[in-house]
Amino acid sequence: MQPPKGGRDAPSVMAEFRTILNPARDNARMRNLDATRALWQIHFCVLLWGFTAILGKLITLPALPLVWWRMLLVTAALALLPRVWRGLAAMPSRTRLAYAGIGVLVALHWLTFYGAIKLSNASVAATCMAFATPITALLEPLLTRQRFRPADLCLGVLSLPGIWLVVGGVPAGMHAGIVAGVVSAVFVAVFSSLNKRMVDAGDPLTITALELGAGTLALSLLAPWMAALIPAFAGPLLMVPSAMDAVWLVALALACTLLPFALCLVALRKLSAFTAQMAVNLEPVYAIALAALLFDEQQELSPGFYLGVAFILAVVFAQGLLASRRTSPHAEQIGLSEAHHVAD
User: Fold this and answer.
1) How many CA atoms lie within 13 A of 52 on its CB side?
2) Residue 30 lies inside a defined structural domain of this protein
3) Does some domain include residue 342?
């Protein structure tokens, strides 16, 4: 028997009736869908962050002009948003100065990170970023006046065999890149800890614009002395990029910085701190896989290197598991630190 014209069949009516009787089940299903979508978003963000190392390899500019252009482009894009200017006007001058100082650390982190890529390769530089987690566990109590945790020290010590394997698995000519990468990881640990201490002091986009703008200014002032201080990173600050480099720089600034920042802030509202941190910890894995796929970098590195990477990542995941049981970090903090950073 056909239902009346314009009417609904019995199954549709019964489904609606069940929804009315049990709205909690429907709400739970929607939350699960939102969480699944957010998980895909956070992994997409981490993949884009993994591409920062790949683009650093593709861009032919030296480390200094590369980082200067990236920071300048992101700052210029954020300066177009009225929300950023309102946030700056509402922020106390002392807070602005503190964030500007953190921005200098962000600039030095990016400078040493891309310097590590130029001195070695994308895989080595990305692996060194995994050192940031155990280093942060050791430095954060000193910088934020939190209680020191012996378990964090143990995890830091456990990462030493992995570091030894990584260094032994890299050609001698790339050891300078490892040094630069570890220094970059130290900068990550310092500015991430300081950002965490001040996470509620302003709007995330305003903070990012202020930090990166200050970093751009710091690099501009540092440029005349860079050739004498660190010749490997030096290069004319106002070097005009080639057409291809310009495309990669725009992709680095917009697709690998601002886009994942925005997506990350949305996704983290639907995910637990543990789930988010475990996804973020995969950034070196994505970067190393992409480098192997695009550049055949596995030909340059021994199996010992990859064994060391696995060892270090195990420590990183263990530290993330412990941290997730202690506190739930703000979405803005993870977004501001591009896998630890908007800065990677």
Assistant:
1) 33
2) no
3) no
pLDDT at 326: 54
pLDDT at 54 (0 to 100):
94
Rg (CA), the chain: 23
Q: What is the pLDDT of residues 158-180, one digit of tens each?
A: 777 887 888 888 888 999 999 99
Distance separating alpha carbons of residues 208 and 211, to the nearest angstrom: 5
What tokens appear for 258 in the block? Answer: 């601002």
Q: Domain for residue 137, yes or no?
A: yes
Domain extent at residue 102: 48-336
Distance (Å, whole) CA 272 – CA 275? 5
- Give the count of domains, the chain: 1
What span, in angstroms and rounded, lies between the C-alpha atoms of 130 and 320? 12
Burial 63-76 (b: 16+ CB within 10 A, else e): bbbbbbbbbbbbbe
Angle 175-197/122-129 helices, nearest 10 degrees? 40
Phi, psi dihedral angles at 268 (to 5 degrees) = -70, -15
Tokens of 227: 């050739």
Q: Is residue 4 part of a domain?
A: no
- The structure tokens listed for 241 are 């990029």
Summarize the confidence of residues 298-311 as an average pLDDT.
Answer: 87
State the distance between the two ends of the chain, measured CA to CA, in whole angstroms.
Answer: 65
Stated pTM of the model: 0.81
For the stretch 324-343, pLDDT in tens is: 555 544 444 433 445 444 43
